[in-house]
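#struct-queue
[09:14] JT: dropping the first one here, sequence first, then the structure tokens:
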Amino acid sequence: MPYTYILECADNTYYTGWTTNLAARLAAHNCGSGARYTRGRLPVHLVYAEYQPTVSEACKREARIKRLDRSAKTALIKGGNSLDCKNI
């Protein structure tokens, strides 16, 4: 099951990515084997996730979110309409 997600890093920046396993990907980010961007900004926590029907759609959604400015990403996160990130 592909997902597009947003992490909030320890320095209050956002990181956007996609995965087929949210729990494993979050664990990888937090142990330093995730993306280079997050390695120096640990710990990170999941603040937003969306299920996508295909990997292609997850990648496209990731690209669209990455083009948003910080205020738009914050609005997306606060707007709800995502998975329950606290349970992942």
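[09:21] JT: and here's the second one, same format:
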Amino acid sequence: MKSRSLLNYLRLRPVSTIRRACCYFLLAVLLVPVLGAKSLGPTTPKPMSRLESQSFQRREKGPVLFRHQSHEAARIACTACHHDYVNGRNVWRQGQPVAACAECHQVRPQAGMLDLKNAFHRQCKGCHLKTRQQGRRAGPSRCEECHRS
């Protein structure tokens, strides 16, 4: 039996079969990265993150360094900070990708959404003040304690 080239093989097939094969191939090529990303497992936070945004035109104070390890040691759930609200309910779960705060919170307030600066402050400083009011050890709440340019 003679070996056929791919071109000869395709010439002998009906056009509909070739189209179907191409569609399956493209579908496989597109699905593999999506399914592969899901199977990689949970994302792991960096030990230290810089909370800042290029959205601010001028910086009055420097960026804030956030330590994931100290918050994990205090048994603070990731969902206390990370969120994705759908119909008023946080649907974000640990291990899912984390969007930058500025993806939703703009420099100027939008309808029904905190502006970026107040979102940062309410999330971080608000939690620290609330924790302190409960008589527990808490993180910093004064400007210079967080913003250490």
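[09:30] RK: nice, looked through the second one.
[09:31] RK: The mean pLDDT is 79.
[09:31] JT: good to know. Residues 6-39 form one domain.
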